[in-house]
Amino acid sequence: MGSSPTSRVNLDPQFDSALRLQEPKDRGLRERVAYVTESPKTLTTQEYWESIWRRRRLRRLSRWQRDPAVRTLISLFDSVLKQMGRTGRIRLLEVGCADSYWLPYFAKRYAAQVYGLDYSFIGCQQANEQLARRAVEGSLICGDFFEFSTPPREHFDVVISFGFIEHFPDPSVILQRMHGMLRPGGVNVAIVPNFTTIFGWLQRAINRRVYEGHVIMGPNDLCDYARRAGYSSIQTGYTGGAWYLGVLNFTPALNATAPSLVALLGYVARRLGVLVGRILEAFGINRGGRIAAPFIYVAAWKKDQAALETGYLRRKEDLAEPTELV
Q: In terms of residue numbers, what domain contains 175?
């Protein structure tokens, strides 16, 4: 942890009234992590996520960026952030930031002021390590999403999440909470697995319990959830390239007869997915649709009436009905 930045947690004063700060037990996190209490009910458990992150091995950021699926997501974020038209330093929050490669990426590429929120202590440790590896300053909040999002703060320009909103019975409630976190004109980008077709069938065969921890949704469902959550402009579509098997969770089922074999299959599948992606990328055809795309995304903007009147934001989406981009 010696390479970790030494600045203190840079949470704004308005956070202090909503967060019950505690002293982190891990010395390496003491300068970076604030704690909030836990409460909500989801389709998964905290113990489940702790077990996931406990087995996770950290990769180098450079290796992560060479992943073809990651590159398609980077292109998506580049496109979305260009549409914002914002000047100056943006504030970005990742909800579900355990082992996050995205926080140091956004800090480096966009000079963003980055924040991460997760209720897994192990996941926060790993996110802290990823920031330290790149000598990036950021703020990590180890605690509950519902506690953190009450009351609404309108603090962030960008809120992102990967595989988060689909673990709640009504994703529109989560998107609405995120809406309250955004400043006017801010954007929420949520990525969920595409379990509507073949990836869903495979996940159910690998571990039915993991599959049942997801709300299965397509782009139209995501658009509807975002519309109900109050966003003024919505884009949805498929992303992640084609046939990326890394979207699958190979955690062995409790009754698995050969858990080591399941874990080995997961390793092989992830490597194979990267290889297939690179081949398709080389031929310029690494684009998946409803069947082959591993992920579905929604990019949803919060209305900024004052900006529209002054011309500060110039995005045609602010003036149009929600659209589905596939």
A: 13-304
